[in-house]
Each structure stands twice: as structure tokens, then as C-alpha cells.
Amino acid sequence: MSLLVTSVVLTGFLAPSALAGTVSGAAAGAEPAPGPADLPAAPALRDLPAEPLLRDLPAEPPAQPARPDRERLFGSDCDTEIAGSRVTAHCHNPYPRTDLVALHVECDRWWDVDGDTVAVPVGPAGRVELTSRCWKEVRSAWVSHRPG
Fold first, then answer.
1. DSSP string, the chain
2. Whole-prediction pTM value?
3. 14-73 per-position pLDDT tens digit
């Protein structure tokens, strides 16, 4: 019952100002405050010139991307597997230049010695398998490449 009385009382306080249409302290004949309709309009997107934007775009993509220099064709494709404390890297060289690959292993424990293998040459169309290990867990492993 008290909730109904409270809502009726609040409605009675709010209704007179809503019906009057004036803000407290403003005169009845005064101009309303400027609103969003009175602000200058921003230029619409359709008013912007479309030509400079479209002129910079190519009509069609190139038929073939630029081929890299023969000197840049380098680097074996290596897959690294970590199984427990052992690391194996399988590398295949699809390029005509020899690649020197080395496996680097970082062990998780502070007292476990990290390992780096000797660089092994991988000739054109050649394959090689590199292995290393830690005493305990392996934190990370990666293969480095150098031109041979």
C-alpha cells in the first residue's frame, strides 16, 4: 500500500513541470536552448569527391606477383617435434642453394645445459634429421639457417 502512495506522490511532483513545458527559472516566452538541430551540419560522405579515392586503386591486381631473386631462394623447411626431453627436427631443402641448419634447444630447468648442434649442410632437394635432448623438460627448440 505504501508503494502505491509513494508513486502517486512522485507523479504529483513530476506532472506539473512536465505539463508546464518550461524549465525552472526560464521565462515562458524565452527561446529554447540551442540543440543538435541548430549546429552546422558536417559534410556527408556522399559530398566527398570519390575520384581521388578510386583513382589510386589499380583496375586489376597483377597477373603474377613479382618473382624473388634467385639469391633469395634459400632456406630449408623444418618441422620440430618435442617429445618429453627429446627434440627432433626434420628439414627438407626445396631450393637450389645449400642450407646450413642447426638445432637449438633451451631446457626448462636452470641447471639443465642448453644445447646447440653443429651446422649440417642440406643440399638441393636434400633431407636431414637433427636430434638433441635435455635432462628434464624442454622449454623451446628452434632451427637456425645460414647459406652454405
1. -HHHHHHHHHHHHHHHHHHH---TTS-TTSPPPP-GGGSPPPPPGGGS-SHHHHHTS-SS--SSPPPPPGGG----EEEEEEETTEEEEEEE--SSS-EEEEEEEEESSTTSPPEEPPPEEE-TT-EEEEEEE-SS-EEEEEEEEEE-
2. 0.52
3. 555 555 554 555 555 666 666 666 656 666 656 665 555 666 666 666 666 676 666 676
**What cell was used for 74?**
634459400
Angstrom distances, CA of residue 21 to CA of 16, 38, 73, 123: 9, 20, 79, 89
Domains of the chain: 73-147 (2.60.40)
